[in-house]
Amino acid sequence: MNELCILQDDVPPFPNEIAFRIIEEELGRPLETVFSRITSTTIAAASLGQVYKATLRETGEDVAIKVLRPGIEPIIYRDLFLFRTLASFLNGISLQKLGCNAELIVDEFGEKLLEELDYTLEARNIVDFLENFKDDPTVKIPRVYEKLSGSRVLVMEWIDGIRCTNPQAIKDSGIDINGFLTVGVSAALRQLLEFGLFHGDPHPGNIFAMRDGRIAYVDFGNVAVLSQQNKQILIDAVVHAVNEDYTEMANDFTRLGFLAKGTDVSPIVPALEAIWQNSAGKGLSDFNFRSVTAQFNELVYNYPIRIPERFSLVIRSLLTQEGICFTLKPDFKFLEVAYPYVAKRLLTDPNPALRERLIQVLFKDGVFQWKRLENLIVLAKDNVTKMSNAVQTNKTQTQSKLDLTDTIKDGARLFLVDAGIRRQLLLALTEDSKLHIQELLDVYRLLEADVDVPSVALEVVRDLPNVARDFVLSWSQSVLSDR
Q: What GO molecular function annotation could you give as one example from this UniProt entry (predicted)?
């Protein structure tokens, strides 16, 4: 494992003369006309390329120049051909043991590997990540200089941080480790559940800890995309895990492509229940992806499950980032950070689909879960507090309070417009033939310091014309459907 880690950024570099010639060919002009200074030694040298630090002559900005290793493409094509030829002899065993042919596995691997050889594609990936995190003061994505970049050369903003390959330096720098881990896990979950575009290779050499507590990513050659539908199903799976609905969790596997359509999921349900209860049943403190993945591997071999390529990247990405967390904090608990993010997302995300899932979480077997609502609020507030404390600079300030204005406004709209929701909420307040005033007060006390009641009330009043319109439309539709 230690030898393989060397391939991340410590491979013997190819000569500077060759690298500088490639840069000049891509620029179409001499180096000295663009850069006032460039390092004579590489900052990092990986299996596919190497990096130099330089200063732009025009602006004085420090940049990183990534150069593709010459002659690497024919070597990779040759090796992929050899792999695929070998795979053709293993198809029968692969179909029997894994449920798919070995050639397909090689094709998926090769497709992602070849994408990393095109720096033009990587530049576009960086632009997409910049757009996604533009309003997030806890994440740093380097700016890309597209006019200076090409298919073999990539010029990016220089990241002045500490690589996660040096966990001791991060600890010695005075960075708040707990805050940095919260920021990192939240950023990873945002990529996965919110943007659907995530870093596919977040090894320690590609992640930096900034001295102000932010997390920075580099090397965007390997990224993967999840569809809107897949993102929603993943959130469904989280909801089903919270509600301990293992049958629906098994159906989520079918919807995500782990199981072929029409597969009988009934034999898988007890196995999923055993894995989840064994992993999370003892509480958040005992959960980690290593143990879940190890148990899930057994499930893959015992049932007709095939892990789609995009989700193998998801699993690898989460395992790698969890590993980084363990090097910084050996007793790190993933769910203690992940659950607060999910809770905040369920409570504050404006997406209507998330509102529906919030309702699913709050109602179990038709009974309103008051304690679950309190826990969600406590966890969401915890996420906001930790994120606020993790990064505080003069230029950017993170959100310091849990903003539920839109959630309350939407809740009021649903209560007035949706007869089914109105009935459920009224039943929640009168369950067991009693008014649940105390539970309502407990929830209010949790939100008292965060919610500006007059402002929220004003927002609700302002929205009344739209609510009235929706109410009339809903009523007219119900009348027409009755006829």
A: ATP binding
